[in-house]
């Protein structure tokens, strides 16, 4: 497979200005008639090369004249045609097979509905086209299908015609006035229920809002609709950005490779990020629905109105849009808790990616399979880069920069440099050094040292940055100096050199340094602080992120010590810290975060040659010791956080989180199992039910099977809840797990063709069951490889995401590394390995 390089980018030789599509939808043989208007870009005599894959070519017409098959060349991925005209019309007819499309790219079926997914390069599986984001055209789309099977026929833009046809068929025609790249094209056809509402924009236009869901699910779409309206209002208030079409449609489907897709005017969503009601959705589900609805809506400006010149620029739209959705969530909920959750994702997953074989800058330079670059780095680190810009420029200037970006580039396909230049020009800021964040991979390490000069009342701080010998970055470092003074002294430092020092005057006593307030930069730190200093930050820092982070550092220290010396006892000071957290009068949601131990994934990366079982044992020992020592307090907090009725406001959600984290401590103790069944039986919401079941899966007892069976009976006809059931089963922490996994794969409701279900078993096992995934026999690794071999032929994109834990083995002990490599070599030798997996396996074994 040949890589593509950013450095090889060339503008397209032809433009497509208008596209007129007709789809005659049939289960196994859909006919697509694609009329395109081309113009030649500048003078050249190169042939026209169109992308096309897995389509059957029926005919080609040039300006109305049918071409003989000798007049063009077709291979597996292109159609080449020599044309001497500067302005011409091409009509290409293809046939495609949605029913057999298990890769879920291009046109496929989700149950009985037809659905498309074109990002990144799916349109070429529908028709021959210049399938690249810098070719932008206006689309008119006519959809023809059986009226009974598909009463709803949808595409981008506004409906311009509809009518009945012979043989029980009907058609609807749509026109999207905004020029767009092919990756934003969408078509959906099926039988849905529709939740309708409307939104009055800030300039007084009425926008029709429609959410399409499977029949029987309409009551689960209200939260999504309310979230959409909140997102529309937020973007107007925060960035002055208004929606532009007369209609905004969202369709929820069960078969989908990722979370959702921002197609112009017609978002397609994994049903998991639309459907939610009190009984079947957890608080986390509610949060995620709002966040993903916001994310896709925000793309209308950051992605659709201004799009990417090429796929190497993906972070231009994704990093910026994730930053926008994070700010939206922070404004809708607790800003501190939202930030803590962002950082947990970054530390536990993005840092590992950046240290692994697939590490890449947020603007990658070399790609084999584009789908492999929808990564935590492009999305989450990309969002951190935008956040740093926001921190450096400040809110007002950031807004000025964004305003200039939109006025310069509306309707265009641009680069990350274009974005940064607009921010620099609008604010008169030199951002040349800052641009390095786009081209460096790896997580920078800040090594911090301090010196207090009592005589001169000066505090000296030195920070050195390092990242594999790469040039120094511009890193904003927020700090607080804590002394006995009433006010802490807060600063934003601009670290721009490899090593830099600052002197703070008039500091009357040695301060405690709270570093990286609000996590101002995606970096690791090397700054050992005493338990007392950390305890001081936990209670005295103004910045809530630092308060939380100090607790995490303290816990990390003791978990790593216990790992090396399993018999050691924890110091009283640690118990005291936890006692004060439990007894403090802090917001419940924040307290729940403080009580949550750093996860296996957050810790594993920073320990060399780690035996994962020893690390898991150490986490468990610390948890059990805290539970034992402070059992009455955990119980008291557990009981005090119980609520009589169910409500969904921030306070109620926080209380549930706190109650359930206390439960997770209490169940480590011998005589507390009854709490699980009690909570399961009395729960009036899915958050509490699932918390009880997760604890039961983590500490399996006699009761577990009864509870799981009861749950399955209750929810057997709810697909999304059954995904939770499959995930719980795959997380059961005992040595019957491999038999259990075989049973699950053979379960009548299991299918590898459904990505949510496949992930529910496979990802739940590899992520939530690390003790057995990493078991000494290597059976966990073998299980994953067996599933990947099957998935490779069904859905390579899903397979490629699931392989992640197997390629990030660098910090594991030698024995496990060699077992993993052995499995990867087997996979590498598989004939017909899709390029998605090939790229990753080759990188891991290189
Ligand atoms: N822009 C989208 C990225 C995407 C995708 C979505 C669904 C299925 C396959 C996909 N490939 C790429 C989603 C987003 O970031 O909003
Ligand atoms: Zn996105």
Automatic annotation (TrEMBL):
Query: What role does it play?
Result: Aminopeptidase N is involved in the degradation of intracellular peptides generated by protein breakdown during normal growth as well as in response to nutrient starvation.
Protein biosynthesis recorded as keyword: no
Residue ranges occupied by any Aminopeptidase N-like N-terminal domain in the UniProt entry: 27-184
| TM spans (from-to) | none
Needed cofactors, names only, are: Zn(2+)
Q: Which residues belong to any copy of the Peptidase M1 membrane alanine aminopeptidase domain?
A: 224-434
Protein name, per record: Aminopeptidase N
């Amino acid at each position: 497979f040949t890589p593509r390089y950013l450095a090889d980018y060339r503008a397209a030789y032809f433009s497509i200005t208008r596209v007129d599509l007709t789809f005659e939808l049939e289960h196994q043989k859909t006919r697509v008639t694609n009329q395109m208007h081309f113009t030649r870009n500048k003078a050249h005599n190169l042939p026209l090369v169109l992308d096309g894959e897995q389509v059957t070519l029926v005919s080609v017409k040039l300006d109305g004249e049918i071409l003989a098959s000798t007049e063009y060349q077709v291979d597996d991925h292109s159609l080449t045609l020599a044309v001497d005209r500067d302005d011409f019309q091409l009509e290409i007819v293809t046939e495609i097979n949605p029913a057999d499309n298990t890769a879920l790219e291009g046109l496929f079926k989700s149950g009985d509905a037809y659905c498309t997914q074109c990002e990144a390069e799916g349109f070429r599986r529908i028709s021959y086209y210049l399938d690249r984001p810098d070719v932008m055209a206006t689309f008119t789309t006519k959809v023809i299908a059986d009226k009974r099977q598909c009463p709803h026929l949808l595409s981008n833009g506004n409906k311009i015609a509809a009518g009945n046809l012979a043989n029980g068929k009907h058609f609807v025609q749509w026109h999207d006035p905004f020029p767009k790249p092919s990756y934003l094209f969408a078509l959906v056809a099926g039988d849905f229920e529709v939740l309708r509402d409307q939104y009055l924009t800030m300039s007084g236009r009425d926008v029709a809002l429609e959410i399409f869901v499977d029949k029987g699910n309409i009551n689960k779409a209200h939260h999504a609709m309310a979230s959409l309206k909140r997102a529309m209002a937020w973007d107007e208030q925060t960035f002055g950005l208004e929606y532009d079409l007369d209609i905004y449609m969202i369709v929820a489907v069960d078969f989908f490779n990722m979370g959702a897709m921002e197609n112009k005017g017609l978002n397609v969503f994994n049903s998991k990020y639309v459907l939610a009601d009190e009984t079947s959705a957890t608080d986390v589900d509610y949060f995620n629905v709002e966040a993903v609805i916001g994310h896709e809506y925000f793309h209308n400006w950051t992605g659709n109105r201004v799009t990417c010149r090429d796929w190497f620029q993906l972070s231009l739209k994704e990093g910026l849009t994730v930053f926008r959705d994070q700010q939206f969530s922070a404004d809708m909920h607790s800003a501190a808790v939202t930030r803590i959750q962002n950082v947990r994702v970054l530390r536990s997953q993005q840092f590992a990616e950046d240290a692994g074989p697939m590490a890449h800058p947020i603007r990658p330079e070399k790609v084999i399979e584009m789908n492999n670059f929808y990564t935590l780095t492009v999305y989450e680190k990309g969002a951190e880069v935008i956040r740093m810009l926001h921190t450096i420029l400040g809110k007002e200037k950031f807004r000025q920069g964004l305003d200039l970006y939109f006025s310069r580039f509306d309707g265009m396909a641009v680069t990350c440099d274009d974005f940064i230049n607009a921010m620099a020009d609008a604010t008169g800021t030199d951002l040349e050094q800052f641009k390095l964040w786009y081209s460096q991979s790896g997580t920078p390490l800040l090594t911090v040292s301090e010196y207090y000069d009592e005589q001169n009342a000066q505090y000296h701080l030195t920070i050195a940055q390092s990242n594999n010998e790469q040039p120094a970055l511009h890193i904003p470092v927020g700090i607080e100096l804590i002394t006995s003074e009433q006010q802490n002294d807060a600063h934003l430092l601009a670290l721009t050199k490899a090593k830099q020092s600052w002197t703070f005057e008039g500091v009357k006593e040695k301060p405690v340094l709270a570093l990286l307030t609000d996590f101002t930069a995606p970096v690791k730190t090397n700054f050992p602080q005493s338990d007392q200093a950390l305890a001081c930050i936990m209670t005295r820092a103004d910045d809530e992120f630092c308060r939380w982070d100090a607790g995490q550092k303290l816990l990390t220290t003791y978990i790593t010590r216990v790992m090396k010396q399993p018999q050691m006892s924890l110091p009283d000071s640690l118990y005291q810290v936890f006692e004060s957290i439990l007894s403090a009068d802090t917001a419940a949601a924040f307290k729940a975060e403080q009580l949550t131990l750093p996860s296996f994934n957050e810790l594993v990366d920073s320990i060399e040659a780690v035996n994962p079982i020893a690390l898991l044992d150490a986490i468990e020992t610390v948890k059990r010791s805290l539970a034992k020592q402070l059992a009455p307090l955990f119980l008291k907090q557990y009981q005090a956080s119980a609520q009589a009725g169910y409500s969904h406001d921030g306070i109620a959600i926080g209380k549930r989180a706190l109650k359930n984290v206390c439960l997770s401590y209490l169940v480590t103790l011998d005589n507390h199992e009854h709490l699980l069944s009690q909570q399961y039986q009395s729960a009036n919401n899915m958050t509490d039910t699932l918390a009880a079941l997760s604890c039961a899966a983590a500490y399996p007892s006699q009761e577990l099977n009864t509870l799981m069976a009861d749950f399955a009976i209750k929810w057997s006809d709810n697909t999304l809840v059954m995904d939770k059931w499959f995930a719980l089963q795959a997380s059961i922490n005992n040595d019957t797990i491999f038999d259990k996994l075989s049973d699950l794969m053979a379960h009548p409701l299991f299918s590898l063709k459904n990505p949510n279900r496949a992930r529910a078993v496979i990802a739940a096992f590899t992520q939530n069951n690390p003790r057995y995934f990493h078991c000494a026999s290597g059976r966990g690794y073998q299980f994953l490889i067996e599933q990947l071999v099957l998935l490779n032929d069904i859905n390579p994109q899903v397979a490629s995401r699931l392989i992640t834990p197997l390629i990030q083995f660098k910090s594991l002990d030698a024995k496990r590394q060699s077992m993993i490599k052995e499995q990867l070599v087997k996979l590498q030798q598989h004939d017909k390995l899709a390029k998605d997996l090939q790229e990753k396996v080759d990188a891991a074994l290189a």
